Amino acid sequence: MHTAKLDWITPNAESVIARHARVSTKDPNREEYKKLLKFCIKHGHWSIFEQASASFEILTTRAISPQILRHRTANFQELSQRYSNPWEVLEEIDLPATDFSIRRQAEKNRQSSSSELPYEIQSQFRRRIELFDKTARHLYEDMLGAGVARECARNVLPLYTPTRLHMAAPLRTFIHYVGLRGQSDTQLEHRKIALCIGRQIKLQVPTVVEAILDLLITSDESPLEGWRFLR
User: Fold this and answer.
1) For the segment 45-103, what is each residue's pLDDT rounded down to a tens digit?
2) Which contiguous run of DSSP H or E holds residue 20?
3) Which of 62, 172, 181, 191 is catalytic?
4) At what angle do helices 171-181 and 188-204 cross, to 10 degrees?
5) Is 164 among the catalytic positions?
6) CATH number assigned to the domain with residue range 3-93+161-229, chosen from the 4 options 3.90.1150.10, 3.30.1360.170, 3.30.420.40, 3.40.1350.10
């Protein structure tokens, strides 16, 4: 469920960034730009990467979307539960929303988790979650059927309720978003989304990502660490 796909990106994004970076030169349209982009990333000249933008459609849950929305340099549009029934709008999601991972609480990081709990423990909770889900959905539908406004009925929806949002931002924002949220201390579901975005950015601006990875080779600790985990 936790995935993202590219809506759009500035056409020829790398050449656009290079042309804008050369605004003060006589020939800003020179074809060669790899050295320029790598130089700017190596020396932290990030402003030029605001000259190209992209947008991604993200499918996730209401438990994860608030974490994404915290990235305030991006612009968002999210499915409105005041306007629509999320279970009807998001019928294309294959996996049931209740099929979320049940992991063990991390010992040293109280906001994180570690490996999944044993099957025997999980199965006990799965049965109870299924019963809870049926109750919550029936209650929600009954409230709508009785004329209760969606903006009121949504209060009974659980955090695993699916949602869809569009995240639009300059490339600079996505570079740092993937660098941060692709790291191992990010919640697994959010990390999957960030790395999914990173893989698609790599296809669109390979020189930029290559330069980021080159930078990480010479850095033991970097705010762009998440890019190391692209597969």
Assistant:
1) 999 999 999 999 999 999 999 999 999 999 999 999 999 988 887 776 666 778 899 99
2) helix 13-21
3) 181
4) 140
5) no
6) 3.30.1360.170
